[in-house]
Structure formats: C-alpha cells, structure tokens
Amino acid sequence: MFFEGSEKKAEIVVNTTKISLLDHIEDEFWVALVQCCNAQILSSVKNEHCKAFLLSESSLFVWHDRFVILTCGNTRLVHSVEFFIQQIGMDKIQQVTYQRKNEYFAHAQPSSFGDDIKLLGQYVAGKAYRFGELDSHHNYIFHQDNNFRVNNLDKIYEFLAYQISAEASEKLTTAGLKSAEIRQFLQLDQLIGDFLLDDFVFDPFGYSVNAIKGKYYLTIHVTPQANSSYVSVESNMNLSELSERFLAVLAPKSFDLLSFNDFDFVNLMAGFIPTSYVSKSRVSERLSNNNLVCFANYILPQQDFVKAKAFDIAGENHAL
C-alpha cells in the first residue's frame, strides 16, 4: 500500500482590526474550507488562543490573526486557499504563504507547485523559491509580495523524516495498535505531556496528533509503510529536543530540517544531530517579507543496499 505522506502547507495572516478568525468564523466555515481540498475534519480541541482541527489528511490550526493548514495524500490544498480568499476578501488578508515539498509519487498528484502558484497568482502577486536541490529533497515556498513584514518572533520549525528503520516501521504497522501505544513509542507523554492532545490512528496504517498549549502548537503525522515511510513534525516552538528523540526512535535514512526565523540555525543543528548523518544540502535565505528561511537535508550513509524491486505491471501500482 502506497500513501503520499508529504504535506502541502498554507498560512494566511489576517488584519485583526477587521476580523478575528477565532471570534468571527464558525466551524461550518472551516468544514467547507477543508472539503475544498477533498479532506474532512475528524475532531478538534481548543483553548483561548488556538483551535486545532485534526483532518483526514493532516491538520488545521486557527488563531485570532492567522491559520495554518497542512494536507497530505492527493489533496489539492490550493483550492482551500482560494476558497478562503474568495469568502473573506483580500482587503482583510495581510499575507498568503504556500509551501510544498518534494513527493514520493509526484506523478500521482493532481497538480504541481507550478500549477498551484499559477492559480494563486490570479489573486495575489507573489514570489516563489526552491530550497534544496531539484534532484534531491527540496521545498518550494510562495509568498505574497506586498508591504507586510513577518515579525522575527514568529518562529516555525519542521522536522521531516524519510525511510524510518525497519523496526520502527514494523512497530507502527502492528495490527490493532492503539494511540496510547504510539504515544509511548514516540515518547510524547514525556516530551509534551502538559499539552492538550488530540490524536487518531488510521486504518490500516497511519497516525496523526495535534497538540496545543497557549499559543503554541505541535503536529505529528506518521506514514509508517516501509516502502514509503514518512514522519513530519511541525511546531512554533524549538524542536531540537523532540527531533533528537525522534532520530533515536525512528532512525530514518534521511531527514529535512526547515526553520523560519531561527537566527542560530547552524548551532541548533549541531546541538542534536548525530555525527553519523551527513549534510547534503544547506540553504538560508531572507525573503522579501522578512522571513528568514533555513533548510537542511541530512542522509545516513548506507552500507547495505536494497535489491531491484519487481512490480506487477498489470496491477494498480502507484509507484510506477
């Protein structure tokens, strides 16, 4: 079974003198927005600062001044962004950011990054960047090009792990696995035990968790299948301790790190990445909206190599 775990992501910042996304928007609006990209809301948790929706394909977080949505699989997230723009109006929007990373099965996606930003270009003037090498792990970022400037205190971290160890994959694809067992395996109770958690175990495989505490959020999505394993972690708090634990637990063959507005990114990486991993790419760029974006890709050099993979060419094999 193949599933595209790599997420597409959008963040939209609004003018709170004109609208509050927590106070003025009902849940029915978010249900409709999520449906626009062919996903559904499964559950939600909230506090006074943030509301977190767990989706059939990843997560949606809403604050007074912005929302962040991530979707995986074959969703077309750009349609949800278009819905928000059409319903709310550009006069209330301060900044649109759209992000998309390399995929396992890009040919099976309903659109490319180029298709998506061409659609967004009908509504906003923007700039686009690629972080990382085209023939390796990379991340595309589009942002609205206007007078808005991101606050340096608005930090986001992403940890993206590929090809987790056979032991981790076997554990996370165990039949009948419960959410409490996955939390224990990932050591979440020790790391974020004081957060409000909302999680879900998918059938037959897969796991998602949203966690919020005050204005802080964290989300984890696990695609554990050995042939396309992928684990993503995103938060607006420093992920160095969490990432160090996940590297030990998951032992991925490669992983990406992405940060927004961490001015000590190099020392951050040096503090927790084992010397067994080798850096393949490192990019740092300050965007015109004042976001400092840093990207790095690491691999674990292999001593044992896989054999050729045979396919059933008459069957429905999306890896072809």
Primary descriptors:
eight-stranded antiparallel sheet, 320 residues, alpha+beta, globular, 34% strand, single chain, 16 strands, 8 helices, 20% helix, S-adenosylmethionine decarboxylase
Secondary structure class reads alpha+beta
Strand content: 25-35%
CATH fold-level label: S-adenosylmethionine decarboxylase
Low-confidence stretches: none
The CATH C-level class name: Alpha Beta
Total strands: the figure is 16
CATH superfamily: S-adenosylmethionine decarboxylase
Specify the biggest β-sheet.
8 strands, antiparallel
**C-alpha Rg (nearest Å):** 19 Å
Strand order of the largest sheet: 2-3-4-5-1-6-8-7
Order of helices and strands, N to C?
A: EHEEEEHEHEEEHHHEEEEHEHEE
Known CATH architecture: 4-Layer Sandwich
Total separate domains? 1
